[in-house]
Automatic annotation (TrEMBL):
<dbReference type="InterPro" id="IPR004639">
    <property type="entry name" value="4pyrrol_synth_GluAld_NH2Trfase"/>
</dbReference>
<protein>
    <recommendedName>
        <fullName>Glutamate-1-semialdehyde 2,1-aminomutase</fullName>
        <ecNumber>5.4.3.8</ecNumber>
    </recommendedName>
</protein>
<dbReference type="InterPro" id="IPR015422">
    <property type="entry name" value="PyrdxlP-dep_Trfase_small"/>
</dbReference>
<keyword id="KW-0663">Pyridoxal phosphate</keyword>
<keyword id="KW-0627">Porphyrin biosynthesis</keyword>
<dbReference type="InterPro" id="IPR015421">
    <property type="entry name" value="PyrdxlP-dep_Trfase_major"/>
</dbReference>
<dbReference type="GO" id="GO:0006782">
    <property type="term" value="P:protoporphyrinogen IX biosynthetic process"/>
</dbReference>
<dbReference type="GO" id="GO:0030170">
    <property type="term" value="F:pyridoxal phosphate binding"/>
</dbReference>
<dbReference type="InterPro" id="IPR015424">
    <property type="entry name" value="PyrdxlP-dep_Trfase"/>
</dbReference>
<dbReference type="InterPro" id="IPR049704">
    <property type="entry name" value="Aminotrans_3_PPA_site"/>
</dbReference>
<feature type="modified residue" description="N6-(pyridoxal phosphate)lysine">
    <location>
        <position position="270"/>
    </location>
</feature>
<dbReference type="GO" id="GO:0005737">
    <property type="term" value="C:cytoplasm"/>
</dbReference>
<dbReference type="GO" id="GO:0008483">
    <property type="term" value="F:transaminase activity"/>
</dbReference>
<dbReference type="GO" id="GO:0042286">
    <property type="term" value="F:glutamate-1-semialdehyde 2,1-aminomutase activity"/>
</dbReference>
<dbReference type="InterPro" id="IPR005814">
    <property type="entry name" value="Aminotrans_3"/>
</dbReference>
<comment type="subunit">
    <text>Homodimer.</text>
</comment>
<comment type="similarity">
    <text>Belongs to the class-III pyridoxal-phosphate-dependent aminotransferase family. HemL subfamily.</text>
</comment>
Amino acid sequence: MAALNDVNEQQFERAQRVIPGGVNSPVRAFRSVGGTPRFLVSASGPYVTDADGREYVDLVASWGPAILGHAHPAVVDAVQRAAARGLSFGASTPAETELAEAVIGRVPFVEKLRLVSTGTEATMSAIRLARGFTGRPLLIKFAGHYHGHSDSLLAEAGSGLATLALPGSAGVTEATAAQTIVLPYNDLDAVRAVFEAQGPDIAAVITEAAAANMGVVPPDEGFNAALTDLAHEFGALLILDEVLTGFRVSDAGFWGLDRGYTPDLVTFGKVIGGGMPLAALGGRAELMDFLAPAGPVYQAGTLSGNPVAVAAGLATLANADEAVYDRLDAVADTVSSAVSEALSAAGVAHRVQHAGNLFSVVFGDFERAPRTYAEVQAQEAYRYRAFFHAMLDQGVSLPPSVFEAWFVTAAHDDAAVDRILNALPAAARAAAAA
Ligand code: PMP
């Protein structure tokens, strides 16, 4: 084991001397699963290769963007051609308009789109816009949902905060935290009660289109629609966060599987940038035109709409056809069923949770599917640590936390899927023995 990880261990030691925790984003540090993070040097299709030259079938997909698989030739080609024309102009480009049109063509309630560089910026700007538009200060979010690391959104957040069991972040003032009301997910009564008590002060409700940063916890049937109605009843906006789900679970995001309601604002990230730093917020024109320079809500970015990132996003969306979504669904179905079978065969109580082609495993004996952060936090998370390492040792890279979704790509061919399936029985036995 030590010999196997030598290069990664050396890299991690070296990184820790100059980078806080040795990583530039916390979940990468393997804190909850233990062991040494792999330092990756290349990726192709469904595979990633570490600094030791070891290849893994990847079920992280850069946390979502790589729906076509890593280094898809059409995306790499588009990026190389854009790079040769200039890395950044800090001026408008025709391709930005093309990308806005491509998104509007897929998600009909979006009439205008503003490009930013990260999901964090997209949600942060959407909230400012909601506050500026309504003239109200408060925000409702759900426990276990992650919307990036801006101050007002770190309360009881999922993703790395769930992994590290942090209720929030040092450095966020009480005044800021007090402007975010955190409620249990899938609990419309709790939302109604807060609206009835404080309605005139609530600018917006922000919700992940399907929660996938506390593991996958889908919204109850009709939840997003009812939530939208409730927000509108009290004059507030509904911000649908599709940073993770957008263009991944369908060509119109999770909304495309759910429809029947009209969010006011939506945020995209990950797939829309095809692996480059690019994200967006969109919505109806009347609202979006509140953004500067058309309106009074300021929002800007030196690298916003970066031409290389836009080229990657356009090429990714252009290649994400029906066959890609069919393959994503089929791979997710095969792998998630096999995980469940292997765990059952090893006697490990569990549930597999789904939101379109996103899925994750909850360990423990649950009578019904967990619907809230409190419920998923009650699971036997220690079993995932053993499961994760048994998979990694057999050349399969899973998200290094039980509180993250598993991401498939359309490049997961039969050989890659077989490698995953072959690794599962031993990993399930390791989870049983944990
Ligand atoms: N919203 C959601 C739903 C996310 O999953 C994430 C990132 N995982 C973000 C926002 C923040 O995006 P970024 O990491 O690009 O800032």
